[in-house]
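Following the same procedure, sequence and fold were stored together, as reproduced here.

>
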Amino acid sequence: MHDNCPVHTANIVRRWIEDQPQLEVLPWPSHSPDLNPIENVWANIVNVWEPEEERTRQQLLNHMMREWEVLRRKPQIIHTHVTSLSDRLRDVIANNGQWTKY
């Protein structure tokens, strides 16, 4: 399962998936909320990124690794993302599958 983000629907990705007969891509609404808690973890990492100062591939990698370690020392952040899933699902159902505050 993946959402309809342009990264996931790029020609190269679609061709790769087509070449994997063991994979079945589930239908997914175009404007569906992302319920995967890892997306919130990535948001934590991106939200403290300073694009004007961290521009090279190595700087971005260093940033990601540094922030990942910060999150590892704060397991309550990950726990909150995971335990909020039932609230997220409830909101998605109430919103008929559309975006929510999450």
Residues 62 and 102 are 27 Å apart (CA to CA). The mean pLDDT is 85.
